[in-house]
TrEMBL record:
Subunit structure: Homodimer.
GO molecular function, one term: starch binding
Keyword ATP-binding: yes
Protein's UniProt keywords contain Magnesium: yes
SUPFAM superfamilies recorded: Glutathione synthetase ATP-binding domain-like, Starch-binding domain-like
SMART domains xref list: CBM_2 (SM01065)
Key words, A-Z: ATP-binding, Carbohydrate metabolism, Kinase, Magnesium, Metal-binding, Nucleotide-binding, Transferase
Taxonomy of the source species: Eukaryota, Viridiplantae, Chlorophyta, core chlorophytes, Chlorophyceae
Composition skew (Low complexity), residue ranges: 157-175, 187-222, 831-847
This protein's name: 2,3-dihydroxyphenylpropionate/2, 3-dihydroxicinnamic acid 1,2-dioxygenase
Pfam families, per database record: CBM_20 (PF00686), GWD1_pHisD (PF22973), PPDK_N (PF01326)
Similarity section: Belongs to the PEP-utilizing enzyme family.
Record-annotated CBM20 domain positions: 41-144
Reported cofactor(s): Mg(2+)
């Protein structure tokens, strides 16, 4: 092996590789590489390079390679190549670099918080890439740049003699276009290790020595030259009448039929349908669109409704579903172009306005961006040649040529020339394409000069209708020459890769398609980055024309990438990836993950949820680089959590598309008399043609493989049992889904619920609800999970669409039996025989009786409440406010009493955990405030209405609203607030270490009713808590107290007490004010396993940030653990967290714009910056946290996911605290809420916030 040290001048050359896709700035960085894993290269012109650095770093630090080449970030440390740690403090990164490239680099230490990097001292390191037969291993030591060693090795020798033509990708395969035979087996060669050979060609099979696909053929199939691009435009295929070629002038005005129903329409829909009746020609239809988009929109900014309807309308016009007819007027195509220019400008203003804001992700803004981008694709071109007074004149010259027959001349003149110049329409492009096919069908039939001119004209017309091929769009009018070097290089790379892959035919393999997808994404990233800057009002028409070309390039590259990704997924399926990936090496996982990352990147380039997509990409890279994904059960579960997160993001995008276009397409289709299916399936077609659709397919495939590898079922059982009833599907868990007769007289219902927010009540739904199948993950210890167990409703979740489609959907509307065992075994079968009561446990009288008994046992002390009222009336606030340590259930509620006990337990625990200090506004304070306001009679009358069982529906909603308004309008005495705050500060000399440094003391203002936190009646999450209230803001504290008081009378709370048999007049609300903790992690413990009551097993669920995420049932999973309370205390990891965001207390600093260029430094900063605040209460008991913000969570940097030893130690400490508290509570199983604060040194501080009987 040869060793040398290379020096010399540097040259920034970009190499090609199958990799996770690049940042929008146009530079690349290694992805899915790990210290030993294989580098993936695309051609013999590139070679693998491994750079290793020995360096010991502090916790939270990592190393990056920064240098002159794109994959090194072009000297931008934020975009450098991330190195992966391995044993011995050796950091490595793999890359594929072009032969002859000279590499100049340094190494930097990066902090996990994204702060400043530390550059290594000394000169740059330099080396040059050898010829194509040699790979390089570069070895360095931190701080010793002069001691770099470069080892060269023969690539062919390392490959172990892999066949020339075998795959060079992470998973090699050939492609097919539906006619050739798929390749079922892939070759494997090279050395293997824990992560795979450093240069192995990879296979999904174990290998049997065969090299064909079983039919004697080589296992490759044809990829048509233009098939990918043809597929990308298939959604807009012509559905109108076939072109009619005429040889004489036809009437300028044509009669047309149509339907224009305006009944039930309003707003844009009404104007559009009425306007179309008067708009026969394409020009008039464009004018109608311009009027609604521009002229009648405030400040020329159309709203979502206008863009939604007009996109549907323009799609149907452009595809011939709504035919155009000549109107009798003569207007050249420049009029069409000028209308398009005005609409384009307005649409760009819409995008610019919503991307100019800062900080918070805004779903409404994302809908506007979606609608504006899609509308762009339906406009004609307005480039200078089409805005000229006489555009498209070439067809006139063609029509007067003397080298073609007269009949053909007449057809061209009357079908194309005259029609275009007086009343152009999309049908003219269809006719021109048909004519081109005719004149080229028989080679030599017409002169080459004529055919060439007709081809050129066809290209010009395609450009006018924005129907040019992708290459023509990217390169036309000298577009590439006007780009900067990096952008131009990316476009040329795409074009050459596209040509190579589409010409390979049977030679096209999976890694070739991946290289094409990478090139398309790279090119798109440059266009998207250039479009992020808003549009100035004074921009010239020429600049607008160039911007339209860029906008269309952005859209078309997304559509093209959609098809390429679809081909990749198809090949993976044909190769048996779903069944083989559970046993595959990390090398075999590399390309599917890179393809998925590419799809996610495209969604981000479309300005959808950019921050989450950034952190999700980081997660996937981290897990793949850490260890083989299927090496252990925990590794598989961890990667599965991130893939399910990706699937969730894709589903959110699909839901957004369906929401934007579903209603408008159906309404418009009916109004215009189109076939019903055109309106009904329009939104679904848009969803299926979106990148999110391919992302969801691939993410689901990979998640299923990891679920198999982890030995996990697709079902999750929250409440075991057996329930029989009619299987119904509903959007949400409410009484509406249970109404209506059931076949066969069966009254029970097993409800399949698509979404839940975690705060629903089951008891008020009545005895017909026998079982629930929720189609999303749900924390076991969320409020909904707790209530399901209390109400004894069989409750399971399933988020695997394949299982739902296979098991549940065929049985919809039939009577079924749902059986759920504690080991997550679930069966759903059609029920037979006579109707019987469910052994499951429909909500029965038993829970209500125990709830009423519990509430009766905790009845407030009437004499004490009267004394409080008297003290309040006299202003003796010291006699009103109760220090937390003196709180008892009879005067302050069970929650306050248990928090008081926790304070004593914390002191006696020897540092095992802490408990926050607090003060209580006891029972009687609310009633005293009502009396002081002189509204006692009104308050009593409203209580009587709420207690009346005859008051329901809208009348109950109105009564609850009146009561809440009354309570929230009460004056909370300032003296009482000051006394409470003083009691807290007196018991705690300084803010807890968990408080924000340098900020005010923050409070959590919490409910402590006499009808919650009781054995048999936990009322978990039923009443409001307000977190993060500044203690020095008396008005804010008073408002929070009023909100907690009012939450006693939400509709959900009233119905819950009715269901439990508790009179409304018996309910009392105390308010617990506690010093707020800002935990890094929040947890909920059930000291007896909930699904079977096993007291020897503790269940823990953990989430990043505040515990609201766990309690509310936010979509996603927490970290979930079972801990044996006997023996060696074995910890079993059941799930890894994948909640998208964490609720945290706000940090100092300005928020970063959430729509910064995707992948740029600003967007990366936004991912770690402030998010949006939690929403306000909706009046139905939705929890509100006024001072909390949402931040996207990168689980790759969360120690609970990334560090197994730390995870075990942390969970063990939680379990120890849970067992300690359970023992102190006389051995009664407890439901415990707490938080973990991680100190700068990595040490843990456990805080227990409350405990209640489980």
């Amino acid at each position: 092996m040869r060793t040398f040290r290379a020096r010399g001048p540097q040259c920034a050359v970009s190499g090609r590789r199958c990799e996770a896709l690049r940042r929008i700035s146009g530079v690349s960085r290694p992805s899915y590489s790990r210290s030993e894993s294989a580098a993936v290269w695309a051609s013999s012109n590139s070679v693998p390079v491994t750079i290793s650095m020995k360096c010991k770093v502090e916790y939270g630090e990592s190393l990056r390679l920064v240098g002159n080449l794109p994959f090194l970030g072009a000297w931008d440390p934020s975009k450098g190549a991330q190195m992966a740690w391995s044993d011995g403090n050796v950091w490595k990164a793999d890359a594929v670099v072009p032969v002859g490239a000279e590499v100049d680099f340094k190494v930097v230490r990066a902090k996990k918080d994204g702060g400043e990097v530390v550059w290594e001292d000394g000169d740059n390191r330099s080396f040059k890439i050898l010829g194509p037969d040699f790979g390089l291993r570069v070895t360095c030591h931190w701080g010793r740049p002069g001691e770099m060693k470069v080892d060269a090795y023969p690539v062919q020798q390392q490959q172990g003699g892999a066949e020339a033509g075998s795959s060079n990708g992470a998973i090699g395969a050939s492609s097919h276009n539906g006619t050739g035979a798929p390749r079922e087996r892939l070759q494997v060669s090279g050395q293997s290790s824990r992560s795979g050979s450093s240069l192995a060609s990879v296979s999904m099979d174990s290998g049997d020595g065969s090299s064909n696909n079983g039919n004697g053929r080589s296992g490759t199939s044809t990829l048509a030259r233009s098939s990918l691009e043809d597929e990308s435009s298939s959604r807009t295929a012509w559905v109108g009448a076939e072109p009619e070629f005429v040889r004489s002038r036809r009437k300028d005005e044509q009669s047309r039929g149509g339907v224009w129903r305006t009944e039930g329409l309003s707003g844009v829909a009404l104007e559009l349908v009425g306007g179309d009746e008067q708009a026969s020609s394409w020009l008039k239809k464009l004018g109608l669109q311009k009027r609604l988009l521009v002229d009648e929109s405030p400040a020329c900014r159309p709203g979502l409704d206008a863009m939604s309807y007009l996109y549907v309308y323009a799609t149907w016009v452009n595809t011939g579903a709504l035919p155009c007819a000549e109107s009798g007027s003569h207007y050249r195509p420049n009029h069409h172009a000028n209308l398009a220019l005005a609409m384009f400008r307005s649409l760009e203003w819409v995008i610019g306005d919503v991307t100019r804001g800062g900080g918070a992700r805004s779903p409404s803004s994302e809908r506007l961006i979606l609608a504006a981008r899609r509308m762009h694709s339906r406009l004609p071109s307005f480039s200078g040649q089409f805005r000229a007074s006489t555009p498209l004149t070439r067809i006139r010259d063609i029509a007067h040529r003397n080298d073609i027959p007269k009949d053909l001349k007449d057809e061209i003149k009357h079908t194309l020339q005259n029609k275009l110049h007086r009343c152009a329409g999309p049908e003219d492009l269809v006719a021109t394409e048909a004519m081109l096919q005719r004149v080229t069908a028989v080679p030599g039939q017409y002169s080459e000069a004529f055919v060439e001119q007709f081809r050129i004209f066809t290209e010009e017309l395609r450009e006018f209708f924005n129907a040019s091929g992708l290459v023509e769009l990217l390169t036309g009018a000298g577009a590439v020459d006007a780009l900067d070097d990096g952008h131009a290089s990316a476009v040329r790379q795409l074009i050459s890769t596209k040509q190579r892959v589409e010409e390979m035919g049977q030679g096209a393999r999976l890694d070739d398609l991946m290289a094409l997808l990478t090139a398309a994404t790279q090119a798109r990233s440059f266009y998207a980055a250039g479009l992020v800057a808003g549009l100035r009002n004074d921009v010239t028409d020429e600049i607008l024309s160039m911007r339209q070309r860029w906008r269309l390039a952005d859209i078309r590259l997304e559509e093209y990438s959609f098809v390429v990704l679809s081909r990749i997924i198809g090949l993976l399926e044909e190769m048996g990836a779903p069944s083989k990936l559970p046993r595959a090496s990390n090398l075999q996982w590399a390309l599917p993950l890179a393809a998925l990352t590419s799809g996610l990147r495209h969604m981000g380039l479309s300005l959808f949820d950019t921050r989450e997509l950034l952190v999700l990409e980081n997660e996937l890279q981290r897990w793949h680089a850490t260890c083989p994904l299927v090496e252990t059960r925990e590794a598989a579960l961890r990667a599965k959590a991130s893939l399910e997160r990706a699937l969730r993001v894709a589903t959110e995008y699909s839901d957004m598309v369906a929401e934007v276009y579903g209603g408008s397409a159906a309404a418009l289709g009916r109004a215009l008399g189109l076939p019903e299916h055109m309106g009904a399936v329009f939104a679904e077609a848009e969803v299926r043609a979106s990148m999110a659709f391919q992302v969801s397919k691939l993410a689901a495939m990979l998640a299923r493989a990891l679920r198999t590898a982890a030995g996990q079922e697709p079902w999750d059982v929250l409440v075991p049992g057996e329930a029989t009833g009619v299987l119904r599907e509903a959007a949400q868990l409410d009484a509406e889904a249970l109404r209506g007769p059931a076949p066969g007289g069966e009254e029970g219902v097993v409800l399949v619920v698509r979404r839940a927010d975690g705060d629903e009540e089951l008891g008020p739904l009545g005895p017909r609800l026998r079982g629930v199948v929720l189609l999303q993950e749900l924390p076991h210890l969320s409020h909904l999970g707790v209530r399901a167990r209390q109400d004894r409703v069989t409750f399971v979740t399933c988020d695997d669409e394949d299982t739902v489609s296979r098991v549940l959907r065929p049985l919809m509307g039939r009577r079924v039996t749902l059986s759920a065992a504690g080991d997550s075994t679930v069966t759903v079968r059609e029920a037979s025989g006579p109707v019987a009561s469910s052994s499951s446990s429909s909500p029965s009288a038993a829970p209500a009786q125990s709830s009423a008994a519990a509430a009766s046992a905790a009845a407030p002390d009437g004499a004490a409440a009267a004394a409080v009222a008297a003290a309040a009336k006299a202003g003796r606030w010291g006699d009103v406010v109760v220090p937390l340590e003196r709180a008892v259930a009879a005067t302050c509620g069970s929650k306050s009493a248990k928090c008081a006990a926790l304070s004593s337990l914390a002191t006696a625990s020897g540092g095992l955990f802490s408990a926050p200090r607090g003060a209580v506004l006891p029972f009687g304070c609310l009633e005293a405030a009502v009396a002081a306001a002189g509204r006692g009679a009104e308050y009593g009358a409203l209580l009587a209405r709420l207690d009346d069982p005859r008051v329901g529906g809208e009348e109950l909603e109105a009564a609850c609203g009146e009561m809440r308004a009354l309570v929230e309008g009460l004056e909370v005495p300032a003296g009482m607030v000051q006394q409470a705050v003083a009691a807290i500060t007196a018991s705690s000399a300084a803010p807890a270490q968990s408080q924000l440094q340098g900020g005010p003391r923050l409070l959590a203002v919490r409910s402590s009713a006499n009808v919650e936190d009781l054995a048999g009646m936990s009322a978990a999450g039923l009443y409001d808590s307000v977190v993060g209230v500044p203690a020095d803001d008396a008005a804010a504290v008073a408002a929070a107290v009023g909100e907690v008081w009012a939450s006693l009378y939400t509709r959900r709370a009233v119905l819950s007490r009715r269901s439990a048999g508790v009179p409304q007049s018996s309910a009392r609300m105390a308010v617990l004010l506690m010093e707020a903790v800002a935990p890094d992690l929040s947890f909920v413990l059930h000291t007896a396993r909930p699904r079977d009551g096993n007291r020897d097993v503790l269940l823990a669920e953990v989430a990043a940030g505040q515990g609201e995420t766990l309690a509310s049932g936010t979509r996603g999973t927490p970290w979930r653990f079972e801990v044996a309370k006997t023996g060696n205390g074995a910890i079993t990891t059941l799930a890894f967290a994948n909640f998208s965001t964490a609720l945290v207390l706000p940090a100092k600093g300005k928020p970063v714009a959430s729509f910064a260029s995707y992948g740029s430094g600003a967007a990366a900063a936004a991912a770690a910056g402030n998010g949006n605040g939690a929403g306000a209460s909706d009046g139905n008991g939705a929890r509100r946290s006024v001072a909390l913000v949402e931040r996207e969570v990168d689980y790759g940097s969360q120690r609970m996911s990334a560090d197994g030893d730390w995870r075990q130690a942390t969970v063990r400490q939680m379990a120890a605290a849970g067992s300690y508290i359970e023992k102190a509570m006389d051995g009664v199983p407890q439901d415990i809420e707490g938080g973990v604060v991680v100190g700068p040194d990595g040490g843990l501080a456990l805080h227990i916030f409350q405990t209640r009987p489980q």
